[in-house]
């Protein structure tokens, strides 16, 4: 799991360059501070990145990896927290934090105390932040009130600092270098399995990129999705036909609810196997390049790195000052070229589009749909308890709502479903609707009915006869 930490210093060129860095280094998550946000809206990032931002808009988290489905926990004034769920580990809590240099220590501590009172959600936690707190414990030559307060908080909560010692300063200007950016964790296993490095590449910000690699094996929860809309349905028919007669025989032997549940699981399993042998699966591919990035920008980037190495390796003060001046000038030009290349690429996209409501329109007028904050129903326990809390709020107990007993005047059982009834029903199913956790979408259901209508009709009528809805169809993900 590759996590990037960076203060963008409200720089347009910095957030543009961030896209290139994410692609080149395979970054899964970006914890950022001070993004470029004119009129209070963060811009300059790809539309498929998930965004979580603090209340003041000065810290947040990008999720460029589409396979990660984070859960937003809290939005506070100076920070935002999310949970990265894993199918084989405890969830990893990520907190992005920013404390302005002008803030008093009380503003620094408010959010941290809040997380401490929640016991950091009882999970391994990473706090990535620009704390602007001075203390010699993490590299400063002096200490201030914020640094003392932060160190007291770290020691009292048994937190560990991931910054390597002696650390490369993550904040460097022509006049000074310092250590405002810290990464904290509450878990010894995360401390031992994580590598923390300051990257020696240009970020278009005075802050350097910090690469945090969590080496624990994280298996993100994901479901198989088949490419069913591209055809190949005749092959599906041939594969599933080998199971059809046996399934009909099993269906005729069903006597009770337990038998029906077992048959349903077997039916879904055979459908899934047939899909696996027939259709391709949808895979997430990391972007390998940026369409707006040019060869000339690569040349400028290498030239800038060469100039930087010249004054870093020299011991001659005159040479150092000379190349620092050249570096500042070239860096300003590099930022300008990045912005120009980005706008030029956007202009070409808009001019060459054939659909006025295409990708450029959606990108311009998109509205970020922020996920629901679960603070009010979060019970500060395990993931299972949290999921149960969500279910209770979404689906309260039936006995809460007073109901009158229904009196039926006619006790005649409903007649069995007919072929025409099912045909009309299945025809109305939306083929574009996403499938459930079993990966079987409505296109597959339609294909099944068109080729194996006898099996489907018998299955529906068996459910009606037993007055029972199989358990498999009641399952969902929370």
Automatic annotation (TrEMBL):
Superkingdom of origin: Eukaryota
Pfam families recorded: Exo_endo_phos_2
GO MF annotation terms: catalytic activity
Limits of the Endonuclease/exonuclease/phosphatase domain: 93-210
SUPFAM superfamilies: DNase I-like
Protein name: Endonuclease/exonuclease/phosphatase domain-containing protein
